[in-house]
Write a structure and sequence with these properties.
2 copies of one chain form a homodimer. In chain A, α12 links the parallel β9 and β10. By secondary structure, the first copy, chain A, is of the alpha/beta class. Chain A folds into 2 domains: 240 residues, Aldehyde Dehydrogenase, Chain A, domain 1; 147 residues, Aldehyde Dehydrogenase, Chain A, domain 2. In chain A, strands 10-9-11-8-7-12-13 form a 7-stranded parallel beta sheet, sandwiched between helices. A 4-stranded parallel beta sheet of chain A has the order 5-4-3-6, with helices on both faces. A 3-stranded antiparallel beta sheet of chain A has the order 1-2-16, with no helix packed on it. Chain A is built from 14 helices and 16 strands. The interface between A and B is large, with 71 and 71 residues.
């Protein structure tokens, strides 16, 4: 099938394209063999990878030092450098993450449903690997190993497209993983690092129809929309979270306070952090002054509408919210605050500005909660709890490859079963279908 | 998010675009309200639609007569005219299809999984409607009503893009459905027929990101690839089936004969019909002469490789297979036939030429069957039964909106649950997440 994005190919991008397609072909072939690997074999493989990472930590740290030096020289911020940095203990964590994944149940082979049809045909829908999964990501080199672990455990091959700032670190990690693949009798093409210096490699990856079964972009809104716009292979969008907490008239003030503080300040750079607080007008005067003081004391800048500013009064400094604030995923110590007239007004606001990630209500009113959970359309709708719980680990999945904010295939935290597809097995005894 | 396909808009297509986007916006708004409709309400709606279709059959047949006349004048084939033709009894069938769907369980609200987390949070993943579903289809006007019934039952709004040859019939049907929506107190925008005379309306539908949640193309390979290539909204590919039957060395000859005859000749125009027969070399001489005679007698043209031709000998006329035959979904009384050396050779052939729809093995050898069911990667893998069973009705789903040949979200026959997504409901009591 022709590809959408083949204009303006120059020679360099054509070479990149050949690299990507050849990696994808290798991955497809390797994945076909690997699909039937038993859980025993896969778990042993992940354990051997964990051992090798610990044993060869020196190589990894040397490569990482090279990336860090390049980052410092190019003026990378301290926060970025910290995300890039690997230490002995971070390598140990990454290795232990692989052992955790090895300990999780194998999704492959699970019977999702099954029955015997009236004519005696036996029908079973079973999980099988997707095939070749592409991951496009930024920053942290630990994603390289985490993503490889999850895709291998679920029987897939993986094409990794990391950021150029972590090029050496990622190369060192992948080289170790591939050595273990070969030592364990598997094709090294099950794990491939794609060229990261050319932007076009993303395009070639996401247009490799027939070779790549799924691409998951992990990163900021810019990365995700680049992937979605160019892709002709299936994509699962992850992670943009403009999450709201709505505090109802019937909220318990203590619970509201706890939930809002936790949802905003626990970690601000994550997609499940709250970005907007909506307060029922009848709760505004009792709740907002103290809560604003506490938030402000914790370093949060409050971007308020007029009614919220009025309720807060002198309790804390505020800055007037602009129209953009309601649509902004701050990922920082900022919070937009508005006063609303009813649960329905809060839901209307969320419907206009939400990104379908996580939306919370704090209320003791059963009817308000029922209306909110029924009508609000998001991957997770949370009642009287922090938005921070939307997470594969917290949900008991044991791991997470991202949080899907789309509706098809997977919605919310994605772990091992979400990296599989199914096939129907139909067993008969010479059965034919009447005309 | 910008759209991919906005080049070369001329004025007429711009008007079409406005029509499509305005229908999509109306559908989205209507879908938001409709998502919470109870099963009772939805079943009553479908029953009222069925009644109205029967009551107003005259209008439908008049409109259909207009399409038929236009078709005859433009030189449409008898087969095409027959697919387009509605009769009193076909209208009754369509209405009774709606009643069947009304009788099926409502997928919305079903708890897919749920548990209580160690910290006491209650977690439930429940099915909710997708929102707005687009269907692009050809030929038969009954698809208009079938698709509307399934999408409404699963709580969605539907945008229908039928073929221009059925324009009047589809308009009559949709007008009746919309009248019933209004009489039942629902928005008529839950069911909208898009302009069908302009090709560009498909493009505008499949690029309406943020308004349309899913597009399902139903039709031939050309229609499907047009949709997939242009789409920026999620698409589920359906129906291209280059299905194989592999008859193993250890096959029971009678079962093999029954299965092959049924898979090829039951109905040739459907996607689950067999297009290629692969026979183990040790079964070729016993099986092929009689089977070829029977197939040929039923009107099937055999496209054979050299070894198959040799095994068939004088038993039936054959024509040498070209390279294209192995990749052709005939949808006609044609069958490609090859002799292979082993189950593995059959699987290699299927891996190269299959479309991931339905692949069958006929064998009494447990090991060969196990290898085949494990390695063959398709929506359905069938043992000792006809490929014709891959069908929502046959699988006991009560209905079918298409057969997905892709791996994400749904694979194989799609019915009501496949027209939903899920959301996580998280209930706490002031729960916060530790740092």
């Amino acid at each position: 099938m022709p590809e959408k994005s083949q204009t303006n190919l120059d020679e360099s991008t054509d070479a990149v394209r050949q690299d990507v397609l050849s990696a994808a072909r290798g991955a497809r072939e390797a994945a076909e063999q690997f699909a039937a690997a038993t859980r025993e074999t896969k778990d042993a493989l992940l354990a051997a990878m964990a051992d090798a990472l610990s044993r060869r930590a020196g190589e990894i740290l040397d490569a990482n030092e090279f990336d860090l030096t390049a980052g410092r020289e190019s003026g990378m911020s301290e926060a970025m450098l910290d995300r890039l940095k690997l230490t002995e203990s971070r390598v140990t964590e990454v290795a232990s993450g692989l052992r955790t994944v090895a300990g999780l149940p194998d999704p492959v082979g699970e019977t999702v449903r099954g029955n015997v049809l009236p004519n005696g045909l036996e029908l079973r829908q079973v999980r099988v690997p997707l095939g070749v999964v592409g991951i496009v990501y930024e920053g942290r080199p630990n994603v390289t190993v985490d993503a490889a672990g999850l895709t291998l455990k679920s029987g897939n091959a993986v094409l990794l497209r990391g950021s150029s700032s972590a090029a050496r670190s990622n190369a060192a990690l992948v080289s170790i993983l591939r050595d273990v693949l070969v030592e364990s009798g598997f094709s090294p093409e099950l794990v491939t690092l794609l060229p990261c210096t050319e932007r076009s490699s993303v395009r070639h990856l996401v247009t490799a129809r027939g070779l790549v079964d799924l691409v998951i972009p992990r990163g900021g809104a810019g990365l995700i929309s680049t992937v979605v716009e160019q892709a002709t292979v299936p994509v699962i969008e992850t992670g943009v979270g403009n999450c709201h907490v709505y505090v109802d008239r019937a909220a318990d003030t203590d619970k509201a306070r706890q939930v809002v503080i936790n949802a905003k300040t626990r970690r601000v750079s994550v997609c499940n952090a709250a970005e907007t607080l909506l307060v029922h007008r009848e709760a505004a005067e009792t709740l907002l002054p103290d809560l604003a003081r506490e938030l402000s004391g914790a370093g949060v800048t409050l971007h308020t509408d007029e009614r919220a500013a009025e309720a807060i009064g002198d309790a804390a400094p505020v800055t007037p919210a602009t129209r953009e604030d309601w649509d902004t995923e701050y990922l920082s110590m900022d919070l937009a605050v508005a006063v609303v007239d009813s649960p329905e007004a809060a839901m209307d606001h969320i419907s206009r500005h939400g990104t379908g990630h996580t939306e919370a209500i704090v209320s003791e009113d059963v009817s308000a909660v029922r209306r909110f959970t029924t009508r609000v359309n998001a991957a997770a709708v949370v009642v009287n709890a922090s938005t921070a719980f939307t997470d594969g680990g917290q949900f008991g999945m044991g791991a997470e490859i991202g949080i899907s904010t789309q509706k098809l295939h997977a919605r919310g935290p994605m772990a091992l079963p979400e990296l599989t597809t199914t096939k129907w097995l139909v067993w008969g005894d010479g059965h034919t279908r009447p005309r």
